[in-house]
Amino acid sequence: MKDKIIQKASELFLKLGFKSVTMDDIAGEMCISKKTIYKYFCNKEVLIEESTSMVHKQVHEVIDTIVAKNLNAIDENFQIREMFRDMFKNSTDTSPLYQLKKHYPEIYQNVMTYEIDQCTQYFRDNIHKGMNENLYRKDLNVDVYVKFYYTLVFHINENTMSEREAQKIELEALEYHTRAMATPEGILELEKQLKKFITNY
């Protein structure tokens, strides 16, 4: 039952917003009593912590699945961007991370500490992969480019209220990041991915 509550709460938080969803809403959606929810979660904040943890686990499982396909580095990044777009397409118009930072800053900080570690390692692996494939330049300072990119991505999510706008700017950030690193061969692959992504949008 605990896992089912977390799953339903996660869906509602992403769809309607962390602030607006109440314990009554979750109980009503599940046709259970509020007392049942409080049996597992002493307050809404604890449920939000568990829900965000579950969503991030699911996100990184999907990322690992995409990475395991052994696509080229640029294709890999675009597949992951498409996954995020699909995962959050039914979300409230307000970006989930923006809401979390505004209404539950302590939970947000905990999420970000973990997320930055995870993303830093993924970005680093992707850059090394692209360099080996001759899609990214060999002379890159990998640590600097990793820091540039995650600073861009997290700044967008923290400061852009609209989820749709955040996704649009993130795509532009990915293009910017890729162009800054790409070889002529990488630019050709980037243009191919951009055309495919926009066609599927």
Automatic annotation (TrEMBL):
Molecular function terms, GO-annotated: DNA binding
TM annotation in the entry: none
Gene3D superfamilies found in the cross-reference section: Tetracycline Repressor, domain 2 (1.10.357.10)
DNA-binding region(s) from the entry: 22-41
Classification via Pfam families: TetR_N
Top-rank taxon, per record: Bacteria
Entries under InterPro entries matching the protein: Homeodomain-like_sf, HTH-type_Tx_Regulator, HTH_TetR
Domain (HTH tetR-type) ranges: 1-59
Signal peptide: none
Keywords from the named record: DNA-binding
Protein name: TetR family transcriptional regulator
Species name: Flavobacterium hydrocarbonoxydans
